[in-house]
Amino acid sequence: MVSKKMSGLMGSSSWIRKMFEEGTRLKSIHGSDNVFDFSLGNPDIAPPDGALKIMADISATMYHGYMPNAGYPDVRHTVAGFASKTYGANLGPEDIIMSCGAGGALNVVLKAICDQGDEVIAIAPYFVEYGFYADNHGGKLVAARCDKDFLPDIDSIEEAITDKTKAIIINSPNNPTGRVYPHKTLADLAGLLKKHPGILVISDEPYRRLAYDNIEVPSVLNIIPNSVVVTSASKELSLAGERIGYIALGPGLNCRRDLADAMILATRILGFVNAPGLMQRVFAACIEDSVDIGVYKRRRDTFTAILDNVGLSYARPEGAFYLFVKSPMEDDIAFCKRLLEERILAVPGKGFGCGGYVRFAYCTRESVIEACAPGLARVMDSLRTGPA
Predict the structure, then answer these.
(1) Distance between CA 354 and CA 127 in Å, rounded?
(2) Can you give the residue range of the structural domain that contains 359?
(3) pLDDT of res. 254
(4) 275 and 299 housed in the same domain
(5) Which neighbouring-strand residues pair with 348?
(6) Which residue, among 129, 76, 90, 136, has the nearest Cα to 110 in the 3D structure?
(7) Using an 8 Å Cβ cutoff, are 118 and 291 in contact?
(8) 388 pLDDT exceeds 50?
(9) Residue 99 has what DSSP assignment?
(10) What is the pLDDT of residue 18?
(11) Residue 8: is it exposed, middle or buried by C-beta count within 10 angstroms (0-12/13-18/19+)?
(12) Does the predicted model carry a pTM greater than 0.85?
């Protein structure tokens, strides 16, 4: 009954979900307080109070029927004004397409641009779903390397480009490393793409407003002419389950209006039809709001202190809520299995196209982070001393 393709995909499905499901199993046995689950990037901070009140007020009075596939015109107008300030680009409502989160937005963009056999470049480590999204639309994901600091390696991207390359996906602040790509990196990429003006840069930015220590997240739309941004309220408003986001088409895009029309059609024929109506209204009303990122910063600092104490190295996150930690074992899957013995759940770097590392998602209570320290120390001590 199940297609051969889906059977194959299920066999290679996300390590993130596998570890999350293992965490659910362990919690049923040992209790949630005795399992230290860092597998899934699921925001645990409550949405801002204003968002919840607005949601309740609007739901009681709004009309819940269809609207244009691209979203309510007044919502797109509000989002365009906000995005123009955020990205330093002149955007109108016709440059905004409301989406079912960033994942839905990525699928809409790829549907609009990909023909069978086209290639989409991602920079490893990358969010594992990118490969599935490209495959959805006849495309193939091609991995380029990052450098030792987990920033895009421009030479590797150039090596990956072929006459079939349709797009490059970048993700900053990055999942799984937490790195923010600096202006120079994006400018270097823009320089490379002058030789390849037909390649679209898709900037996946659901963590843009989760950046620490006043670090600047540069505007891709302002640096790379042929670019779009996909983003969502999943992280910044802790509304991951409500699936609301948008696509912003950069002012320097080739065939901008044709591409917008293709994305609007893709929104309909992929079955999204439109982004959730209620959440469009809520998002527009709360567009200046955000969760307190200071909570995530404190958790980062607590977790990095624990890692420092046990001797694990990592890329210090500048944003998002992930730590990408160098595995003390060559086999990162084996290291994750050792962690499981202490009921600590992390995700192997192989799941992000970058073996030899593991990812910890610290969108969980600080008490859980602190409580994992003894078990993590025991694992590291056992690796240093070897079998008794």
Answers:
(1) 11
(2) 4-47+292-385
(3) 85
(4) no
(5) 358
(6) 136
(7) no
(8) no
(9) E
(10) 75
(11) exposed
(12) yes
